[in-house]
Amino acid sequence: MGIKERKLKHKEDLKQSILDAAKKLFIKEGYQATSIRKIAAEIEFSPTTIYLYYKDKAAISHALHQEGFKLLASQFSILAHIDHPFERLKAMGRVYMQFALENNDFYELMFNREEPLDCVDEHWEEGEQAFRILLMVVQGCQQAGYFTQFNAESFAMFIWSTMHGLCTLKIKGHLDQVVKRKMVMQDIDDAFTHTFETFIATLEKLK
Amino acid sequence: MGIKERKLKHKEDLKQSILDAAKKLFIKEGYQATSIRKIAAEIEFSPTTIYLYYKDKAAISHALHQEGFKLLASQFSILAHIDHPFERLKAMGRVYMQFALENNDFYELMFNREEPLDCVDEHWEEGEQAFRILLMVVQGCQQAGYFTQFNAESFAMFIWSTMHGLCTLKIKGHLDQVVKRKMVMQDIDDAFTHTFETFIATLEKLK
DNA sequence: CAAATATACTTTACAGTGTTAAGTTTCCAA
DNA sequence: TTGGAAACTTAACACTGTAAAGTATATTTG
User: Which residue ranges carry the DNA-binding annotation (chains A, B) (predicted)?
Assistant: First the structure.
């Protein structure tokens, strides 16, 4: 049944090109501006054809959301080359920050939107896996004498909170709004990295 | 010219009732579901009347956003009764968390949406004022011997990041998603407060 | 091979959105 | 009484996501 397979292949192709078109629009114009109709126009199909391949817009969001996690995971892969656990943790933070800033639409979709999670039935595999990596790095640090008095899970949660908060404040422009005014940090040009360094310094003191 | 004043009063009244209606809908159904048309129906005027009092929807968002900051500021007022600086910082964190969870739509509008900030011309007074309070509390802590080796502004920024990250992760459901699974923190029923406690514990070590 | 059926896609339509321009009513001042 | 301004509405535009119904084309079956 070679024909049936080719058909299926073709169907998969179209599903993929819908996603590619969505991704393209999404990266260029952001989530709000990425409408079903524009995606359809991009691939030169009628808008309703999209619904033959994706349940609704949230399903497309979810697919993009997963693409984002793949991308993040690939960025994290460089961490394997760093031996010292605490150095690895620092590098992980920097990779996370860079990812958030360079792909802020993806970041938004991955962590700040609820639509994609509506498609996730009680199980958010991508998020868990990313958290698991952080948890392992934290546990590595603990074996090297860091954060020994803390529960690994909640310490990882704390680290994630700080990094997530910092990145979202930066992306939404709140960081610069508060900081670039004369009132605070007159002397600091980059509040973002400086706040990160402060965070790292506090962690360093917990050896 | 008593008549003209009454007119002006009446205009202000309508502007206020638009805001009240928006607030009511917004609290009950969230930002997305609060449309100009629904606000208009609520006050029994035609949709376009709204535009005689507010430039566009972002202007209404901005007004609500300011209401949110008023509310937060009123919650912060209880901090004045707490003498010990570090206790005040802890209480501030708890008030912030409670505000975020109890008014998560407001919180979203205040810190996670960009629309309201579009109305703010290069100056985000509300945000700055809130940050100034945090900064003062941090400086108070420093005078009591905490965080002395750190720059107050960036330390305040770090604290805000952590609190903001924790609250948004909680609100968006990511915290529970990652934590309530068996894989981590089997024994912890409330990951949110536990992570906060971990954060406070790290701060405590920086005396 | 012809008829029935399934597949893939489109057209049309609904109910909603923010927003603008033009039209209408109301009310006050000259 | 009349002119005009102020307050409000109607109608319309250009969008949005999505469902139902219609139409070709291709495949299977009698």
Answer: 35-54
CATH of the domain at A1: 1.10.10.60
Residue A41 CA distance to nucleotide D13 C1' (Å):
21
Q: Is B163 on the interface with A (CB under 8 A)?
A: yes
Interface of A with B in 75-134 (CB under 8 A): 111-114, 117, 123-124, 127-128, 131-132
Domain end, chosen from B19, B37, B54, is at B54
Q: Does strand D come within 7 Å of the CB of A37?
A: yes
Neighbouring residues of B157: CB distance < 8 A, sequence distance ≥ 6: A175, A178, A179, A191, A194, A195, A198
Pair B49, B120 in one domain: no
Distance CA A51, CA A42 (A): 15
Q: How far is B14 from chain A (nearest CA, A)?
A: 31
Which has more pLDDT, B25 or B6?
A: B25
* Domain span holding position A32: 1-54
pLDDT value at A11 more than 90? no
- Asked if A62 and A70 touch (Cβ cutoff 8 Å), the reply is no
CATH of the domain at B149: 1.10.357.10
Q: Are residues A176 and A97 in the same domain?
A: yes
Distance, CA of B93 to CA of B145 (rounded, Å): 19
Q: Which pLDDT belongs to residue B134?
A: 96
